[in-house]
Amino acid sequence: MPRRNSPRSENLRRAIAQEAARVMAEHGIQDFRAAKRKATERFGVTEEGALPSNAEIEAALVEYQRLFAADTHGVTLEAQRRAALRAMRSLASFSPRLVGPVLAGTATAHSDVHLHLFADSPESVALSLLDRGVGHEVGEHRLRVDAERFHLFPSVQFELGEHTIDATVFPVDGIRQAPISPVDGRPMRRADVGELEALLGPGGA
Prior knowledge:
The protein is built from seven helices and five strands; from the N terminus they run H-H-H-H-E-H-E-H-E-E-E-H. Helix 1 crosses helix 2 (about 30-45) and helix 1 crosses helix 3. The protein has a five-stranded mixed sheet with strand order 1-2-5-4-3. The chain is of the alpha+beta class. It folds into two domains: about 5-70; about 75-200, Beta Polymerase, domain 2. The model has no long low-confidence stretch (mean pLDDT about 90). The protein has helices at about 5-25, 30-45, 55-70, 75-90, 100-105, 120-130, 195-200; strands at about 95-100, 115-120, 135-145, 150-160, 165-170.
């Protein structure tokens, strides 16, 4: 019979998840591991077994937003999704997909808008931005491609009004298999322009 965690251990785990969620919401930390580290430092926890999963932290973040950001979260999220839609329309030739917290609805006011783009060469995305006079930075994102492997993918980041667009560039055939979500270990949910328009609803597009 599997051993159950003690009530004290469960309470501590929940408290760490809530603190990590607060850190993400209030301080703009977007990485689960960094938020978890901040939370464990506050509680002085070093035991691996006491640490909440990313899914538990995401659930705590949803609850935090419901309790403390009910008046602003919906407005902020809609603005982020509108910015995503504008960026996706401007990058239509790269079959853009929205991913991450803005799609999931868990984005905070500090969250970047994350896109996946698909191109024969990463340089073509940068050239497309240059042709339109859009300043940008190039970088890399390390993503899990299956249960065992990570891979580095090129990225471009640029500003669109008040929002930061962070786009990871995949090979064209990368559209068939999404990388693994850091939240639940499943393939990342991706939304195309039509799905995002449906999320925004009448008048939102």
